[in-house]
Write a structure and sequence with these properties.
Zn-ribbon containing protein; single chain; mainly beta; five-stranded antiparallel β-sheet; 65 residues
Length: 65
């Protein structure tokens, strides 16, 4: 597995189909073969980052999920 944002392999599982990159602090949710990326804010809320990536960059298979 690698992070589509920073290409790090330092990814941990934090829930069912939910992962976290410990290098760039991005949360990754796996849904229907696509990754949904969110930035964790200081207050714990999530900001969706999907619009910053092409669909091909968010494909689960392309990132080893």
């Amino acid at each position: 597995m690698k992070c589509p944002n920073c290409s790090s392999k330092n990814i941990g599982k934090i829930g069912v189909n939910l992962f976290y990159c410990w290098d760039c602090y991005i949360e990754l949710a796996l849904e229907d073969g696509q990754l949904s990326l969110s930035q964790v804010e200081e207050d714990g809320s999530l900001t969706l980052l999907d619009d910053l990536f092409q669909d091909s960059e968010r494909e689960a298979k392309a990132n080893g999920f």
